[in-house]
Predict the 3D structure of the following.
Amino acid sequence: MQDADVIVVGLGTAGAALAHHAARQGLSVIGLERRALDQAGARWINGVARWMFAEAAIDAPEAPELAGGGHAFHMLLGRGPERVVVRDHEVLEVDMRHLVARLQRLARESGAELQEGVTVLGLEGQTVVTSSGRFRGRTVVDASGLAGPGLLGRTRPRASDLCVAAQEVRELVDERGAEEFFGAHDARMGETVCFTAVAGGYSIVNVRVSEGTVSLLTGSIPGDGRPSGRKLLDDFVREQPWIGRTLFGGARSIPIDRPRVRLAEGRVALLGDSASQVFGAHGSGIGPGLVAARLLAEVLAGEPEELHEYSARWFHEYGGTVLAADVLRRFSESLTPEDLRVLLDTGLMNEVTARATMEQRTPPIGVALLAQTRWRALVARPDLAARVGRLATRTPAARLLAKSYPRSARRVGAWSRAAASLLG
Ligand SMILES: Cc1cc2nc3c(=O)[nH]c(=O)nc-3n(C[C@H](O)[C@H](O)[C@H](O)COP(=O)(O)OP(=O)(O)OC[C@H]3O[C@@H](n4cnc5c(N)ncnc54)[C@H](O)[C@@H]3O)c2cc1C
């Protein structure tokens, strides 16, 4: 039996960041990963808002980890041509293979012991049972993502709360063909063209060319019989002869249900996708997982008896953003390309709200924005007006709710019921 202050299960971005921060705080840390370490976590390009690196106390990436950022983002309504263009945003395109490797290196340098090829099977008290023996931790953290062992009894989110995404970097085989494609969509090479609501409100096909490669990102909620992100990507590539073979990438599900209301029980904590700490409006879990890792390590360093403080601090400091993003995701799911056109006419959909959402902030959907709204555009659409009204009231409610997350674990049940009734 091996012992440590903290046993971390899963060494993707969230687990590796925690191993680093906890070891830096002077705690002994053993990290367990079922895959080879250089195959752990996300293996594709992800968009991460720059501010989240600062918040997570991790240096912002540099090339080759940094694969792009700041270029114009054309958010087309359906297939367009109407669009919102977001310029000068602070979303970094990060090669996750490099970020995972950097975080694991930082963890080792801080003193954590990382073990690969170890599959965690379950938990007996504070003892982690694995394919390679037993490990005892004063604290056990499950950062094993959606496919992990669910050490706090996770049930898989409903199909309607799973986004299936695919991201691939492919060869650019015909530069002229690419130029024609971007020209036809009124965009330049190096910019992102994003087709929205192509398979239900919550779906995208996103394409960009840079340095001889094509970067593709697709996602949808296939639970309602819609094509998955994988299928959207394959279908798109089939239509575009200028896109060549896959260089790297992957596809899998992202939990976009609300975060777990109890992020810890006793001395066992959840982190990252395993806690649904995901900005649900676009299924982004890297930044939230990194921020939560920093926060959990700080709580662990204070040697509390139990870890409820982690839940409370996370909801108070960051939960409002994630709960508001959940409200936005449910709203966006209901939108057709025609609805999006109406929202563009009202002024509710604009560069400011789109940039905030891209950067994983809460868009300013408050009184000021509603006061400027061209409501006439909504007169013929009372159904959409009602949904906008719900969005406008539930967004601030979600933020207030997170701030009122109870400091006592005993009150979480009541809080959770209030959240369900307020947010639907
Ligand atoms: C195609 C795609 C595109 C995405 N794009 C974005 C984006 O642009 N921006 C963004 O922020 N997010 C994006 N996401 C989501 C993001 O990738 C995830 O939220 C993030 O990877 C979750 O990190 P994690 O560390 O919590 O879990 P994971 O990355 O799933 O890591 C968990 C680790 O635990 C290990 N593990 C699992 N079970 C066990 C076990 N039993 N024993 C030991 N180890 C185990 C796994 O092997 C894995 O290495 C995207 C997801 C996909 C699929």
Q: What stands out?
A: The longest strand covers residues 243-255. The mean pLDDT is 94. The first helix runs from residue 13 to 24. The CA atoms of residues 48 and 292 lie 15 Å apart.
